[in-house]
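Thread amino acids onto this structure.
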């Protein structure tokens, strides 16, 4: 009979180290998937909305998992969530300030994304030649009084006739309405976790094994 004895001290130590690495492995895999979800959600903004601002394309944030708390949270940043949540949960468009109407630029300067610049409404209403109210054809909005040029009255020497100021619509107030597009935030996140979660775990395991047994 031949007795066989193996020294498993090193292997036991490695396995013990491996056990200690499991929380790190879990957090690494979870964060890997969480950032994949974040990238996909941000990229989807360009497919859902026409020419969105970079601010909207960076709407998603990640609260990372840790060894002590193996849970990551992918969510909309508060500032963007205010106007994006109706596209996820349904409801009316978010409006600016206390306004209950949608503000549609008509003869107001817009940026490259087709939107009025920050503070444009405040500047309009503070001007002496504008007012907020109902104009021709019952249209509610911000109107500008355009002073016409003085014209001579026929048959009267040196006579000057001052025409009434014309009104130019700068911003139209449109009744709010339900959103029709859908963000699909939750469905997209679930799909990515389902498809890529296993690969992220395998990658994290390989990383831990390479460290433990080298």
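Threaded sequence (214 positions):
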């Amino acid at each position: 009979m031949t007795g066989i004895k193996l020294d498993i001290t090193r292997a036991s130590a490695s396995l013990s180290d491996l056990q200690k690495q499991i929380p790190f492995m879990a957090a690494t895999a979870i964060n890997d998937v969480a950032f994949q979800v974040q990238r996909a959600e941000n990229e989807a903004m360009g497919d859902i909305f026409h020419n969105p601002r970079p601010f909207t394309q960076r709407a998603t944030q990640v609260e990372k998992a840790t060894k002590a708390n193996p849970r990551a949270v992918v969510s909309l940043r508060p500032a963007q969530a205010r106007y994006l949540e109706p596209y996820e949960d349904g409801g009316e468009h978010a409006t600016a300030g206390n306004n209950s109407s949608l503000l549609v630029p008509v003869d107001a300067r817009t940026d490259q994304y087709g939107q009025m610049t920050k503070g444009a409404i405040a500047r309009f209403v503070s001007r002496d030649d504008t007012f907020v109210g109902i104009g021709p054809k019952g249209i509610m909005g911000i109107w500008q009084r355009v002073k016409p040029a003085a014209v001579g009255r026929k048959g009267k020497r040196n006579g000057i006739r001052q025409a009434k100021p014309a009104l130019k619509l700068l911003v139209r107030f449109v009744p709010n309405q339900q959103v029709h597009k859908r963000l699909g935030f939750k469905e997209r996140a679930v799909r990515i976790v389902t498809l890529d979660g296993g690969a992220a775990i395998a990658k994290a395991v390989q990383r831990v094994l390479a460290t433990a047994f080298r």
